[in-house]
Specification:
The chain has helices spanning 65-79, 108-122, and strands at residues 3-7, 11-16, 19-26, 30-36, 41-47, 87-92, 127-132, 138-143, 149-153, 157-160. It has 161 residues and is an alpha+beta fold. The protein has a 5-stranded mixed β-sheet with strand order 1-3-8-9-10, with no helix packed on it. Helix 1 (65-79) crosses helix 2 (108-122). The radius of gyration is 15 Å and the shape is globular. The mean pLDDT is 93.
């Protein structure tokens, strides 16, 4: 029986095989996954905002793309993952509401995706798959045995990436 760990908003967790990490209701938030295919160590973060540098109350590192991705990396390495083998998959970053003005500040989902990609690039962790954007929410499940990321959406079905 696989252990299932649920990740809340502004939260992260890591697991070894056999195990499943899941997070519900990714709207503009982004689900970041890291996976080592040899040790079968998996990690997932549910980040809400692009940068901790622009927010005064930034004590929760898992809330932001910059600090959350770094913290997730530290946690999978502590569990025994090899940095050189890590692969990443992303989901979320939707534009959940339409705004009359085209102000970029309101495009939180898009800004989150860009911020996560920048951090992963800096950390030299390849993104091998993503399901981002759109205007619908997602629930994701990461399977430590295979590295498969199951993306479930209402009205858009379920897919594996």
């Amino acid at each position: 029986m696989s252990e299932i760990k649920k990740i809340g908003m502004a939260d992260l967790n890591v697991i070894k095989n056999p195990g499943i990490l899941t997070t519900l209701g990714l709207g503009s938030c982004v689900g970041i996954t890291l996976y080592d295919p040899i040790t079968k160590i998996a990690g997932m973060a549910h980040i809400m905002l692009p940068s901790s540098k622009t927010i005064r109350n930034n004590t929760n590192a898992a809330k932001f793309a910059d600090t959350g991705t770094q913290l997730l990396l530290e946690e999978v390495l502590k569990l025994g993952a090899s940095r050189g083998r890590l692969l990443s998959k992303l989901a979320g970053g939707a534009q959940m509401f339409s705004f009359a003005n085209k102000n970029d500040i309101m495009k939180i989902g898009e800004r989150n995706v860009i911020a996560v990609k920048e951090v992963l690039q800096e950390l030299r962790i390849p993104i091998i798959a993503e399901d981002t954007g759109g205007n619908f929410g997602r629930t994701i499940e990461l399977y430590a045995d295979s590295g498969i990321l199951l993306v479930k959406t209402i009205g858009h079905g379920t897919k594996q990436i």
